[in-house]
Amino acid sequence: MIYENEIRPRVLIPKVSPAGAETDIGHASFPEPFHIGLQYSSPARGHWTIAHSPMLIPECHEIYVCYACCLHGVVLSADEVPDGAGRFSMVTLTNENILKGNLEEMMIDGISDIIDHLPERPRCVEGFTSCMQHFLHIDLKLVYGTLRKKYPDIDFIDGYMIPTLQHRFSPDVLGRRQLTRAIQKQPRKKAVNFVVNYFPVDPECELVTMLQAGGYTIHDFAACPTYDEYKAMGESIANIYFHENARPAALDMEKRLEQTPLYIPYAFCYDEIRAHLQEAADCLQLSMPDTDAYEARCEAALERLHDEVGNTHMSIDYTATPRPLNLARLLLTHGFNVYAVYLDTVLADDKDDFYFLQEHYPELQLRSTMHFKRSLLPRDDTRRYGKVLAIGQMAAYFTDSNYFVNIVENSGLYGYTGLLKLISLTSEAFKEEKDMRRIVQIKAWGCHG
Amino acid sequence: MKQAQQVLSTYAVDVFGIASALYELGGLIIMHDASGCNSTYNTHDEPRWYDLPAMVYISGLNEADTIYGNDQRLIDNIAEVVDAGKPTFIAIGGSPMPNAIGTDYKAIAQMASRRTGIPAFGFRTDGIHSYLPGAGAAFLTYAKEFLQAPQKKPQQPARRVNLLGLTPLDFSVVGNATTLKNLITENGFILQSSWAMGESPEGLAQAANADVNAVVSATGFYLAQYMQEAYGIPYVCGLPMGKKGTAGWLQALRDGDTSYLTGLTGKEKPARLNRALTKLDAWKVEQVYDDTPCDVLLINGEPLQLLSMRQFLADEYGLHDVRLLCPLADAPEPLTTQIETACSEEAIRRECRKARRIIADPIYARLLPGEEKKFLSFPHEAYSGRHYRDDLPLFVGPDARKWLDEKGF
Amino acid sequence: MRKIAIYGKGGIGKSTTSANISAALALMGKKVIQIGCDPKADSTLNLLHGEPVMPVMDYYREFDDEPDFEHVGREGFGGVFCIETGGPTPGLGCAGRGIIATFDLLEDLEVFDRINPDVVIYDVLGDVVCGGFAAPIREGYANEVFIVTSGEKMSLYAANNISRAVENFQDRGYAQVKGLILNRRNIEDEREKVDEFAAKRGLPVIADIPRSKEIQRCEELGMTVVEDNPDAPLSRIYIQLAKDLLKEEG
């Protein structure tokens, strides 16, 4: 039983002004609205980490080769999903390895030792190196080359947990790319992949219907039931991706597997949804659905939602969707009272929306989630504004609202159907309180190992 | 391969120990590491994170700063926070990368202090050693800066008691800290200060007025030795567990009996804190121990929990064939003379095979698949974080056997 | 206890200078520790009659354990206690970490307390590299720095880099450069060039060591010039330098 006095002792909390951590969009600059010095990290943790995403590859075993400090986080995070621990091992780096300079040898020996002692032989092993190996520039080709020779029946993926040394790619972007590296070229079939999303694309969405009607088999990275199904992604002619962070993965697959990359990002405003569907239709010779009918349904649904929520304060965060400003734009232009969007940078896809909002809704607040002041600013919007309807876990935590839509990275919602479902989820969220405290602290929401 | 761990976890590291120890004291605490690396501490090791705002941040170290050894950005960022948040001190500790390039935390602290005008502590941590010396160094350093000279000399029988070494890493937030404090105040003592859960900085500053220090985890041991040397305050190591154990502990406090449980004299040389933070081969200690089977094996990273629980099992259950295993080789040496140390997965598995029953964090049960029944779950926040917090017992006080009985021990 | 760090361009004669200073101090009855802080581990060779001490990092690599006091160093000429940090396998690992780890170990073994030296000489690797470069001048280690240089352009260039780098550490409370030691290479106007540089940086030239074949001859024998013949003119220069170094403090 948690003792309230132990988690909430009487301590003087510094009072700070929001300046620097919050700005109205009218005065914000693109794409970095904030100067981030020392960084805070919120307890809302539904977004996924590189400890979780490899679990989407069936029969893949993760082996992290890092220092205790880095391992402590990933092992316990992996442990929180069912059988996460059974799919996770580690080799602990120490100062001794730096002094001796035997980082390659210890990695080969360590990974071998773990594979030899696993109760079942994994079909795929993703090894993870940390900042140190790369700072000292170890020869990874030698390491994985040796391992591949030693275990020819196992696919090895070189994974990276190198937050200090991110050059072109953030850990998430690089992580997504590496997840596709065990896919090899296979004889072509009329098939497409969805890459590299952490949630299966909603099978009811019109994109899936279009593809099926066009005779395509769909391999959804996030919904591979077996390792063979994962490998079957090598037979597809195209990779459809929805998140900017998956671009390097799709481009890499184009180069390695000669699969056409097709970027049709998540979007909420109709013209964009329509344009993306059209792009898919053109690229894959599909028939378009009746977009006018969809749009009419969305309009009606938005109207009904507006009747319900009226002028209720609404906030959105970037973990709910990679397009928080596009969503804010849709809602604001339909009369909703969106007052705050939580984000730290504006992604390129949201650029037009940023400038649109800057011009038409200059008072919309942008709020940083990692600025040092965020931890000290009161979470009192619910007391200031009354009920706050939040879209996303971080928005819910920071506004202290139990009325929130619990989605992470769009949670598979796509297109008009996705929007309709989001509207319905928002309506539910408005009506029913959730156990925010419990939900937002769960790592990698929806990751089932 | 001693470094390979197929199923086990790792303990909270040094820099997390610093943050945990100083969390409530109004300081600015910085982990010098890459963006995102703080979520480990925040998620798994800090149960106060959701409810209690604190100035605990990550520096967002990047490659350029590492290669160029650029500490200036860090100093500027520190100054920005000091200006807005008005912390009363700065504590900075590091992680593997700054350690590899030899970052000089003392120098950084000196620069930060000069820039901001408040005390700053630099901790030579590397993210490799455990929270024991980390939190230990934090308590000691904080005390050296803020302790005020005592107005009174320590009295005997003792009345005023400090609790040293209270962090959620060893006690979680399930009432153990509260019970310890209640035991003090309900048995004729005055609680002088608690280091450092539920205590104000003003209260801590008066700690040298205590008659005795109750060291309740190894993280408080360094400070206890210091206060013994500086102010002549005797210390008592151990935890009150069970009726007899609680009575014995209270009596030892009254008498200022340093030999209680540990056999220490109080005249020992100060435990080598810097050594604990820099020792190169702490991780691979692996003596070969006696092969005789034993009845109960206790595994715990915190030596005083081990010693106290052994006493408790003898008192309450009449068990005497109990072995103690600490997987942390950087625990203070004077506290581990009666404890076996083994760090590698294989060595710990070997020790587990020798025992009929094992009381340990539930993660250790994975060492012997199919024999999980041998293991009795005693979660340790510093090891498995929040994962098993629901199962974390109230393990101190006269009713300590309740949780073991409920588990059918 | 005086703690002096000797810096300078690689190959300029730091180790020769350090070893001769140590030998001279030993002759004056001083207890000296010389610590070679360079993966090359050749700082103390000429104090040990060519029989090298096992560097701390090599010991670590070979025995998988830290050396104890008996194995951390060895006494050489005049009782000078010789220690070499050594480094990782060339091309792998981190040399700076090796220096820092050795210092940690010296502290843990209480080497200074046990030997109680009058002078500690840190002979530091020639080039400005990672944190290992500054480790010998941090708080608690060397409290004064001397740079060995010739009048050659590249040597003065290196000396300039070193002295500026050290100057940058001033706000960290590190040791500062106290002077230059001219180790001649017999180039034209050598003294003038060094004097000009010294004036620019506001540093004294505390010794002027002539180029001499004697040094090489003695090195062949595995010893310092001072050991070979304390009365030789060159030895007298080193002895004077040692005396001046001791005086410097005041």
Automatic annotation (TrEMBL), chain A:
Name the record gives this protein: Nitrogenase/oxidoreductase component 1 domain-containing protein
Q: Whose protein is this, by species?
A: Megasphaera hominis
TrEMBL record, chain B:
Write down a Pfam family by its short name: Oxidored_nitro
Where would I find the Nitrogenase/oxidoreductase component domain in this sequence? 28-277
Which SUPFAM superfamilies does this chain map to? Helical backbone' metal receptor (SSF53807)
The source's superkingdom equals Bacteria
Which PANTHER family is this protein grouped with? NITROGENASE IRON-MOLYBDENUM COFACTOR BIOSYNTHESIS PROTEIN NIFE
What is the official name of this protein in its record?
Nitrogenase/oxidoreductase component 1 domain-containing protein
Automatic annotation (TrEMBL), chain C:
Q: Which Pfam families match?
A: Fer4_NifH
Q: Which SUPFAM superfamilies does this entry report, sorted A to Z?
A: P-loop containing nucleoside triphosphate hydrolases
Q: Which cofactor does it need?
A: [4Fe-4S] cluster
The alphabetical list of record keywords is: 4Fe-4S, ATP-binding, Iron, Iron-sulfur, Metal-binding, Nucleotide-binding, Oxidoreductase
Enzyme Commission number: 1.18.6.1
Q: Tell me, how does this one assemble?
A: Homodimer.
Q: Of which family is this protein a member?
A: Belongs to the NifH/BchL/ChlL family.
What's the stated role of this polypeptide?
The key enzymatic reactions in nitrogen fixation are catalyzed by the nitrogenase complex, which has 2 components: the iron protein and the molybdenum-iron protein.
Q: Could you identify this protein by its name? A: nitrogenase
